[in-house]
Amino acid sequence: MSNMESRNLKLKTVKEGLIDSVKLKNLILEDADVLDGIIDFGNILAKSVMSGNKVLIFGNGGSAGDAQHMAAEMVGTYVDKRRSFPAIAITVDSSVITAVSNDIGYDAIFARQIEALGVKGDIAIGITTSGNSKNIVKGLKTAKHKGMITAVLAGENTTKLSGVTDYLISIPSTSTPRVQEVHGVIVHILCDLIKLELR
Which residue range forms the structural domain that includes residue 193? Predict the structure, then answer.
């Protein structure tokens, strides 16, 4: 393959990735269920944290990164200087995660922390692109048992999430990279919705 052919192939790959991402976002712009879901959850999230409740956020892999991202935006300043809101990414304590994995099982890594840290009125946010993660489902079940508000940012497959979440924001795609890109945007939008309540 010549240098020119290699460059053209790479340029095609870059453009296809950007186009696919834009297409999915445009699809969501026309999806009233997704838009209403973001607004509804944004409202309850804002009310809860402004009342002093905390948010426990969790996911696997790239979604664990999204959980950390969301916690950072809520605890930090986000865009404007404003009060800090209590949010914890329960994906980051390697000692807890490895201890629970070793002694109980990997499926319990989030449920065990929610059992220890969550109280009635707090919010548990699971982030999953596949919708199949046993540790996400188990964490949400534990949160519901404790009287917490539960929410999920998911991809297209939500079968296993039925009955374990109060608020479900389902992105109509099975592409993990594209779903994660949209989840990142939604994290920022949720922070924007909290900011609106501060006015």
Answer: 31-197
